[in-house]
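To whoever is on call:

I kicked off a structure prediction for a single chain this morning and the downstream step that reads the tokens threw a length-mismatch warning. I double-checked the sequence; it's 225 residues and nothing unusual in it as far as I can see. Pasting both halves so you can look.
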Amino acid sequence: MSGGNFHGEYPAKVLDYLAIAVHELASMSERRIERLCNPTLSELPAFLTKNGGLNNGFMLAHCTAAALVSENKVLCHPASVDSLSTSAATEDHVSMGGFAARKALKVVENVERVLSIELLAACQAIEFLRPLRTTLPLEEVHRLVRSVVAPWDKDRFMAPDIDAATELIVRNQVWQVARPHIDDYFQRETADHKFACDSPTSSAVLIDHQKVAKRRRVTSEHTDE
């Protein structure tokens, strides 16, 4: 007689929530792509191309991002809310955890694609603002992207470029070039709080920063492994 020890309701629920949470990254990213491509909002050339009309620029890339975000909205419907009786009504309530896992993985893959499109669009936008420079970590990210994807001066097949940018994200290379600058900033911010002990809440802020710094070190060590 089954004791229900196999039941996957808990991981199924977690995976459903994971899909919803991760999806939000793409949802926000797509809105930033819109702001980059929309000349009314960005004050840059429409769709980030010099010769609009002759070239589509990032118009279709934005459509791709929007389509992936819309696909994720469907995939974010919880799998764990469903259960159907089978085996002549002898089957237990099922968690649908397997589908929840497959669905969450697909959402993550779609999010990676949307983020890569935003990364490419942001780097293309920077080209129109030269010779101005952005922050040092963003310049490092821009240099990394340009090592695998050239700027767009006219339309070309974008799938290989999106694939290349996605690989940078998946392989953690974007984080690796930005991480030293972010760690340096975080350490300086933490040091600043050490001298802000003139209020009842400042000591609590310091403790929180120390805890966060410790968690970041542990997470970074596991990531590097």
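Update from on-call: the warning came from a stale cache, not from the record. Cleared it. Sanity check on the structure: The mean pLDDT is 87.
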